[in-house]
Write a structure and sequence with these properties.
Helix content: 55-70%
Strand order of the largest sheet: 1-2
Low-confidence stretches: none
Number of strands: 2
Order of helices and strands: HHHHHEEHH
Length: 169
């Protein structure tokens, strides 16, 4: 098991990493969808905001409290009702930063023995520790998704030769 302090520090650092990577970019680049139906960078940040509670903290707390079943979570449904693509980067990162301070405190407050408690989800048994360790893993997947969403914005400014060279790699 990874130390809880490392997991807490990792999830708490995500907003600063995002701010460093994304603040220099034009807001339209942050709203660019890599493909129709895929999330833009701002929507991915919105997803991180809404998953912190329902997909991670609430599930971990329920398992530790002895709930026998883990509540389902549909990320697409959780995003409805709020247009994250029209929000400002500063607004979203401020909200994520505040939420992550609370999330990190929650993770730091866990007892390592609690991480062994279990609950079922669709017939499979999961430990609370599975969700604790998935939290930074989930963040890192979405950091890659954000980079994949903004990276193509540079292509139109490169020569045809450079674009071809990048495709050949």
């Amino acid at each position: 098991m990874k130390p809880l302090s490392e997991i807490a520090d990792t999830i708490e650092s995500t907003p600063a990493v995002l701010r460093s990577l994304l603040s220099p970019l034009d807001p339209e680049m942050l709203r660019r969808r890599p493909e129709p139906g895929e999330w833009c960078a701002l929507e991915v940040i919105g997803h991180l905001i809404v998953t912190d509670g329902a997909a991670f903290r609430d599930r971990i707390a329920a398992i530790i409290a002895g709930e026998p079943e883990i509540r389902g979570f549909n990320p697409s449904l959780e995003l409805t009702g709020r247009d994250f693509a029209q929000a400002s980067l500063d607004e979203l990162l401020g909200e994520l930063t505040d939420g992550r301070a609370e999330a990190a405190a929650f993770v730091r407050s866990l007892d390592p023995a609690d991480l062994e408690r279990t609950a079922a989800y669709r017939g499979t048994i999961f430990r609370a520790g599975d969700f604790v360790h998935e939290w930074p893993f989930h963040d890192q997947d979405h950091l890659q998704q954000i980079l994949a969403a903004v990276k193509p914005g540079y292509l139109p400014h490169m020569s045809a030769a450079m674009q071809q060279a990048l495709q050949d790699d």
